[in-house]
Specification:
Helix content is 39%, strand content 17%. The strands form 6 sheets. Strands 1, 2, 5, 6, 7, 8, 9, 10, 13 and 14 form a 10-stranded mixed β-sheet that branches. A 6-stranded parallel β-sheet has the order 17-16-15-18-19-20, with helices on both faces. By secondary structure, the protein is of the alpha/beta class. It is globular and about 95 Å long. The chain starts with 18 loop residues before the first helix and ends with a strand. It has 4 domains: 77 residues, no CATH class; 317 residues, Rossmann fold (3-Layer(aba) Sandwich), CATH 3.40.50.2000; 224 residues, Rossmann fold; 123 residues, Coagulation Factor XIII, Chain A, domain 1. Helix 7 links the parallel strand 1 and strand 2. The C terminus is likely disordered. Belongs to the glycogen phosphorylase family. One of its GO terms (biological process) is carbohydrate metabolic process.
Length: 872
């Protein structure tokens, strides 16, 4: 019979075991081995059945077992030690508390998804895993972060395969009471809520749930509450589901409702109010509008509030293509703001102007969430050096008149939370060399450029570890493969071959990620006969483990999955290549350590960063990748292999795939498999092990999320907090008025005359020329501007490359024609074709850069010809 109502019955723990509840509710257990080991010892069978989830474990363990543990002095000593360790972790000083300077009192970090643990399935891919690692690393460092997201009642979909290999989606309903969450409650014990106004006098209410991620609180908003109508209850039903209005409401709830949730949490708990708001991708961009509305309610005008909000906002873009950005029809956005909806005191046109694509190449009727994010943030970054450059080019239209390399988007390369992704066996090997505490600090905090202690680990120990991890992966794969085939309808008699699937002594390649077309899941199938020969080579075989999900609406991605599954079903090769459905964190934590090679072959430069190869590297796995994302930045022959790319403008996609697939096969055939199977005098693959050693010692420290979060603190959060503090109401009003005055006066600014002391069009290296410029400033004064000389080598089209910028100084007042004279030196510090130009930029002490306003005045074409600005 089917139940008419579902309840969650919580266990009553005996008093001596009460600390187990606190340990289960703090998600630090997901990356703390001692805590997981403690829960495992409560009841090993229940632990396995619960999927390693302490909350589910405590809900299923027998009362008699709990009573037994309450009398077990050895268990209670372990419990006391682990509980004490958590208390010390939560309250003791860490890296952040040891820093000098006025760091932010708190940072609010908004993301549409968070991958903390498989027990809290609120993620779909790299963006969510990155956000989860960001929170964990911030906790380890002691950074006072508050995470903000949505609680999806269906999470992301579960994936299975039909008999013919077609992806099928399932959306299990999640009960928050069965998750490691607690409702945020007002001081009177009632659940805390936030609300948004909807058109027509309706309301969207959301409950706030709290997940404790170590020291970091994560607030998750849930619209499935009785006060909402059915349509509103479903706003937080699925991650990245529904149509445009559904997505818009999700993003309004995340941004606007998220700020209100943060204010509620700080009011209830006394947590310091955030000085910096960090929006992880454009989905949360509306948070800036809510903060503007807060300031307007306190008496600021819109322009002043905008400047104050921008000062304390950081925006991170993860998207290397415009198609990956959420864009909404202008009228849809307009309907949800204004007098009859949300933020009624802000004019709808002001809201729209923040997101409209009002620049060359944009679609002026579309509201772009990333564009709004950039306009509402004084500081922005991409997630690798290469992606930073791609982003500057993609968004250059917002800063017309400037070269793409001057667009104010920097980069902080992603990292991964090593305590989450490093296999326990790898950690124990490192701890044996340097001790447990030093090993924990090295993985969580980082700070060292090298892990030299890896050099002292004997080759045989490393090789035995790699074989152990590979064997564990083989067992995991066979178990998952058997479960998948049963779901596909196979009977026991058909599955005997699975006992021989994969081999713990064969070179193992991993490929696991989402399945959009640009990641090229099936590039390896380009020449199936050649791949088959590699898989079945009599002396140097390879085996491949593949996993990945296509978006439910992406039939093209599903066809790619089916194509690979059908190849892997072939009886000739199915013991050497497998596809595992339902890729998620639990699978990934087994997959990365067990592989020898991590394969990544996206279309360059469409991988913003791509962190799966980082997780593999921390376990001694070598990378085989296209030079994209982080690999473009940190690739060395010591760490793996680079797949050559055929990304010339004239190469059609089909030919490009063919060229790059051939390069992939060549690398495997001629360089990778020989090195793996080649044995030295010791009987071990010496050259392979040296690459593993150098990957761990030199690449390991770079890829840490601890390094990433420290960079955010030092380069973005602290400057943003300082700018936030400087932007008091008077300063914000002054800056807004100054910007309005400068924009109005800018048509009157021009470069009128340029001359140098050079007598000829050539000069010797090291020469310094005197540069004299006359500029018209119209209604502006010299303190409103900066006049710069920009110089450097020039290309064949006379564009300045690798430019150096020098500020020129004003000399004397305006002449009779209102022109101001500026002078300065021009150093000829490089050989070859050399050029220079001059320009005028707005200047104000509260600007993050002179580029910020998007205004610039440069010499006219006639003046350039007359000045002879090139030297050869």
């Amino acid at each position: 019979m089917k139940a008419i109502r579902r309840l969650t019955v919580r266990p009553v723990l005996p008093d001596p075991l009460r600390p187990l509840s606190d340990l289960a509710r703090n998600l630090r257990w997901s990356w703390h081995p001692e805590t997981r080991d403690l829960f495992h010892s409560v009841d090993p069978e229940c632990w396995t059945a619960s999927g390693g989830d302490p909350v589910r474990l405590l809900g299923t363990v027998r009362p008699a077992r709990l009573a037994e543990l309450a009398e077990d002095r050895r268990f209670l000593r372990r419990l006391t030690a682990v509980a004490y360790d958590l208390d010390h972790y939560m309250t003791g000083d860490r890296w952040y508390q040891a820093q000098s300077g006025r760091l932010p009192a708190a940072v609010a970090y908004f993301s549409p998804e968070f991958g903390i643990t498989a027990a809290l399935p609120q993620y779909s891919g790299g963006l969510g895993i990155l956000a989860g690692d960001h929170l964990k690393a911030a906790s380890d460092l002691g950074v006072p972060l508050v995470g903000v997201g949505l609680l999806y009642r269906h999470g992301y979909f579960r994936q299975s395969l039909s008999r013919d290999g077609w992806q099928q989606e399932h959306y299990p309903v999640l009960d928050p009471h069965e998750l490691p969450l607690a409702p945020l409650k007002e001081r009177d014990g009632t659940p805390a809520h936030v609300a948004l106004a909807l058109p027509g006098g309706r309301e969207l209410r959301a409950r706030v749930w709290l997940a404790q991620v170590g020291r970091v609180p994560l607030l998750l908003l849930d619209s499935d509450v009785e006060e909402n109508d059915p349509g509103e209850r479903g706003v937080t039903d699925r991650l990245y589901g529904g149509g445009s209005e559904h997505r818009l409401l999700q993003e309004m709830l995340l941004g606007i409702g998220g700020v209100r949730a943060v204010r509620t949490y700080c009011r209830i708990t006394g947590h310091p109010a955030p000085e910096v708001f960090h929006t992880n991708e454009g989905h949360a961009g509306f948070l800036g509008l809510e903060r503007i509305a807060e300031l307007c309610d306190a008496g600021s005008d819109f322009g002043s509030a905008l400047e104050a909000v921008r000062a304390g906002t950081v925006f991170t873009t993860h998207t290397p293509v415009p198609a990956g950005i959420d864009r909404f029809d202008r009228e849809l956005v307009a309907r949800h703001f204004g007098p009859d909806a949300e933020l009624p005191r802000i004019e709808v046109e002001r809201v729209l102007r923040l997101g409209m694509e009002t620049y060359p190449g944009g679609e002026p009727n579309l509201f772009n969430m990333a564009v709004m994010g950039l306009r509402l943030a004084q500081r922005a970054n991409g997630v690798s050096v290469l992606h930073g450059g791609v982003s500057r080019g993609m968004f250059a239209g917002l800063w017309p008149g400037f070269d793409a390399d001057e667009v104010p988007i920097t980069s902080v390369t992603n990292g991964v939370h090593a305590p989450t992704w490093v296999a326990p066996e790898v950690f124990r090997l490192g701890a044996r060399q340097i001790g447990v505490q030093r090993a924990e600090d090295a993985l969580a905090v980082g700070g060292s450029d090298r892990w030299d202690s890896v050099a002292d680990i004997p080759d045989r120990d490393i090789w035995e570890l790699r074989r152990t991890l590979r064997a564990q992966l083989v067992e995991e794969v066979r178990e998952r493969l058997r479960a998948s085939w049963r779901q596909r309808g196979a009977g026991t008699a058909e599955l005997g071959w699975i006992d021989d699937a994969l081999d713990p002594d064969v070179l193992t390649i991993g490929f696991a990620r989402r399945v959009p077309s640009y990641k090229r899941l099936t590039l390896m199938l380009r020449d199936r006969e050649r791949l088959t020969e590699l898989l079945l080579h009599p002396e140097r075989p390879i085996q491949i483990v593949v996993a990945g999900k296509a978006h439910p609406a992406d039939d093209g991605g599903k066809r790619l999955v089916q194509e690979l599954v059908r190849f892997a079903d072939d009886a000739r090769v199915r013991h050497r290549i497998v596809f595992l459905p339902d890729y998620g964190m639990a699978m990934a934590q087994k997959l990365y350590p067990g592989c020898d090679i991590w394969l990544n072959n996206p279309l360059r430069p469409l991988e913003a960063c791509g962190t799966s190869g980082m997780k593999a590297a921390l376990n001694g796995c070598l990378n085989l990748s296209v030079l994209d994302g982080w690999w473009d930045e940190w690739y060395q022959p010591d760490f793996g292999w680079a797949i050559p790319t055929a990304d010339g403008a004239g190469t059609d996609p089909d030919r490009r795939d063919a060229i790059e697939a051939d390069a992939l096969y060549d690398l495997l055939e001629q360089r990778i498999t020989p090195r793996f199977y080649e044995r030295g005098a010791s009987g071990l693959p010496d050259r392979w092990l040296e690459m593993v050693r150098r990957t761990l010692s030199l690449l390991g420290p770079k890829v840490l999320a601890g390094r990433m979060v420290r960079e955010y603190v030092e380069r973005l959060y602290t400057p943003a907090a300082e700018a936030h503090r400087a932007m008091d109401p008077d300063s914000a009003r002054g800056l807004a008025e100054w910007k309005a005055r400068v924009r109005a006066a800018w048509p009157g600014v021009s470069v009128d005359h340029v001359e140098t002391s050079a007598a000829t069009a050539s000069a010797e290296l090291g020469t310094t020329l005197a540069l004299r410029v006359r500029v018209k400033l119209g209604d502006l004064a010299p303190e409103d501007v900066e006049v710069q000389a920009v110089s450097g080598r020039v290309d064949s089209e006379d564009r300045i490359t690798d430019a150096a910028r020098t500020s020129l100084k004003p000399v004397g007042g305006p002449d009779l024609e209102g022109r101001w004279a500026y002078e300065g030196p021009l150093a000829l510090d490089r050989t070859g074709p050399f050029g220079y130009t001059v320009r005028v930029l707005p200047a104000h002490r509260l600007l993050a850069s002179g580029v910020e306003t998007g205004l610039v005045a440069v010499p006219s074409g006639d003046l350039v010809e007359a000045a002879g600005l090139l030297m050869r």
